[in-house]
Write a structure and sequence with these properties.
Oligomer: heterodimer
Number of strands of chain B: 0
Number of strands of chain A: 0
Structural class of chain A: mainly alpha
Distance between the termini of chain B: 46 Å
Radius of gyration of chain A: 22 Å
Strand content of chain A: under 5%
CATH class of the largest domain in chain A: Mainly Alpha
Helix content of chain A: over 70%
CATH architecture of the largest domain in chain A: Up-down Bundle
Shape of chain A: globular
Largest interface: A-B, 31 and 21 residues
Order of helices and strands of chain A: HHHHHHHHHHHHHHHH
Radius of gyration of chain B: 14 Å
Structural class of chain B: mainly alpha
CATH superfamily of the largest domain in chain A: MFS general substrate transporter like domains
Distance between the termini of chain A: 20 Å
């Protein structure tokens, strides 16, 4: 039977194929699904669907609406774990196509839910279906890029995962523009915006589906030879996903990712109220939004920069910098707040968020170093459950500790100090996990012949 | 191959550059 367009066999690149044609395919998918980080632009409009200019009593509550994003992120982690092996088996084109169907379909189902004012349809559409699109799309290009760039795996995956950060920078102004365009006297334009974005993202993700290629099994970059003596921690064998997740190395990396993300996501979620409360009277809601935009930019830039740096200084050293420098910066935040220095405060968080993004982008290459390329996408998928846990843990820690402090008479401007020290503690746990990392034992190596690329 | 290279990188680069520009425009308000 001839291979269909979506089959892995149809995506094998011909000899002489320029490998730099592959990152844009990955970016097309990640720039689309990165929209999830900008979902908050819909939060307030979704609470005014009936009242249009204000929230009517029958309108959804903000707390109901914000669950949509949490569900989507939780499903991202779960679907990446569940579908990881399938993504490895069917290859990047079919999995990117599935991701596009789920992600765009999620927008359309959610639009029906908004039109009918049925909250469960919004959760099912954007949260569950869209979340599956996020999870599958997130991991689909990772192992392909690692195979195309054996000489610079950090830079390659960093480029794709940078797209996930960059997606929010595009989606936020795009959503606002579309809602404004579709706004009428009887509608705030959210339904039409969801339908339009579903269609736009489907078409844009097709760029990735059509242009993605996998290298031939015996392909190597011209002039590149694998090092005879690989650096410490870099395996020469391959570890299958079902074995990998039972090794201590997997759980140490899980701890590394979870701690790095918990600290960063807690700050990201509270960035706007935090800067307003620490610098009361000096930072308005509008300038706080600028602060959020600025640190999002560093979140994106950190992904490509830190992941590329890790190709030179090593993955473990890169995370040592994240945790070591992170502890210093988090610990300095209360002092910077007392000093009243907005530029230094912003600079500290810009670096912190660059390392948050860098943590996401460097982890696939770290996994490749430890477990090899055989099932790196599937192992990455399972590791992303750490993200799902951190996505709940980080914001919860930040908001509950802040509330507890305020309820006990601590002024709002100082309510974040204890939280920052707790974040230092989390980063220290991550530091220890990273310090304990050792090369995987040879008894875990995969013995059968590795499948074709 | 060269045209394909340019088209693909423009397809991802232009929206990203637009997003970065919009974010920077807003971020400037922080220091004004």
């Amino acid at each position: 039977m001839p291979a269909s367009f979506l089959d892995r066999e149809s995506t094998v690149a011909p000899p002489g194929y320029n490998r730099f044609l592959v990152p844009p395919a990955a970016l097309a998918v990640h720039l689309s699904i990165g929209q999830a980080y900008a979902f908050s632009t819909f939060n307030l409009p979704l609470t005014k669907l009936i009242g249009i200019t204000h929230s009517a009593p029958a309108d959804w509550k903000l707390t109901d609406v914000t669950w949509t994003f949490s569900i989507a992120i939780a499903i991202l982690g779960l679907s990446a774990a569940v579908f990881g092996r399938w993504v490895e088996r069917v290859g990047p084109r079919r999995s990117m196509f599935a991701s596009a169907l789920c992600f765009s379909g999620g927008f359309l189902v959610a639009a029906v839910g908004i039109h009918l004012h049925q909250l469960w349809l919004l959760y099912l559409g954007y949260g569950v279906l869209g979340g599956c699109g996020l999870g599958i799309g997130y991991i689909s290009p990772v192992s392909t890029l690692i195979k195309w760039f054996p000489d610079r795996p950090g830079m390659a995956t960093g480029m794709a995962i940078m797209g996930f950060g960059g997606g929010a920078l595009i989606a936020a102004p795009l959503s606002v523009m579309l809602m404004k365009h579709f706004e009428t006297a009887v509608s705030n334009g959210v339904v039409e915006t969801f339908v339009t974005m579903g269609v736009i993202y489907f078409m844009y993700m097709m760029i990735g589906v059509y242009s993605v290629r996998v290298p031939a099994a015996d392909w190597k970059p011209a002039g590149w030879v694998a090092p005879v003596k690989p650096p410490p921690l870099v395996t020469q064998g391959q570890v299958a996903v079902d074995v990998a997740w039972r090794t201590p190395q997997f759980w140490l990396l899980w701890g590394v990712l979870c701690m790095n993300v918990t600290a960063g996501i807690g700050v990201l979620g509270q960035a706007s109220p935090m800067i307003q409360e620490i610098f009361t009277g000096r930072v308005t809601a509008i300038t706080a939004a600028s602060f959020v935009g600025l640190i999002s930019l560093f979140n994106m830039g950190g992904r490509i920069i830190w992941a590329s740096v890790s190709d030179y200084i090593g993955r473990r050293n890169t995370y040592m910098v994240f945790f070591g420098l992170g502890i210093l910066l988090y610990a300095s935040v209360p002092t910077l707040g007392h000093m009243g220095s907005i530029p230094l405060f912003v600079a500290a968080f810009a670096i912190i968020l660059s390392m948050y993004g860098g943590g996401f982008a460097t982890i696939p290459a770290y996994l490749r170093d430890i477990f090899g390329t055989l099932h790196v996408g599937a192992i990455h998928g399972r590791l992303l459950t750490a993200w799902a846990v951190a996505g709940v843990l980080g914001p919860m820690l930040m908001s509950y500790i802040r509330e507890y402090q305020i309820n006990n008479g601590v002024p709002k401007a100082q309510a974040y100090s204890v939280t920052m020290y707790i974040m230092c503690g989390l980063l220290f746990i991550g530091f220890l996990c990273n310090l304990a990392m050792r090369a995987v034992s040879e008894r875990h190596y995969y013995r059968a012949a590795a499948p074709a690329a | 191959m060269k045209a394909r290279f340019i088209v693909l990188w423009l397809a991802v680069g232009l929206p990203l550059a637009w997003g970065v520009m919009k974010t920077l425009q807003n971020a400037l308000k922080l220091f004004q």
